[in-house]
């Protein structure tokens, strides 16, 4: 399982506060929202948008809401894997073979 920025909505905004022209003119603040889980990470401490984006992604990934979503996803994947393995036992496999012009199930 992997999470990428494609799964997230990235919003940029002006940081505001002290810092003069850079903070008033540039949108350096970043808010990342993970769409499937609803977890949010926000950063506005650094001067660069890239550094804020990395910090916001780390905050979003460490949020309790996101951790719970990951735990549920891993549980679902394990359940699906177990079901596929159970369905693939030789007892459950059926094949159809053509014999004498008709289909026969074995």
UniProtKB/TrEMBL annotation:
<feature type="region of interest" description="Disordered">
    <location>
        <begin position="1"/>
        <end position="59"/>
    </location>
</feature>
<dbReference type="InterPro" id="IPR045853">
    <property type="entry name" value="Pep_chain_release_fac_I_sf"/>
</dbReference>
<keyword id="KW-0488">Methylation</keyword>
<dbReference type="Pfam" id="PF00472">
    <property type="entry name" value="RF-1"/>
</dbReference>
<dbReference type="GO" id="GO:0003747">
    <property type="term" value="F:translation release factor activity"/>
</dbReference>
<feature type="compositionally biased region" description="Basic and acidic residues">
    <location>
        <begin position="24"/>
        <end position="34"/>
    </location>
</feature>
<feature type="domain" description="Prokaryotic-type class I peptide chain release factors">
    <location>
        <begin position="3"/>
        <end position="63"/>
    </location>
</feature>
<protein>
    <submittedName>
        <fullName>Peptide chain release factor 1</fullName>
    </submittedName>
</protein>
<comment type="similarity">
    <text>Belongs to the prokaryotic/mitochondrial release factor family.</text>
</comment>
<dbReference type="InterPro" id="IPR000352">
    <property type="entry name" value="Pep_chain_release_fac_I"/>
</dbReference>
<dbReference type="InterPro" id="IPR050057">
    <property type="entry name" value="Prokaryotic/Mito_RF"/>
</dbReference>
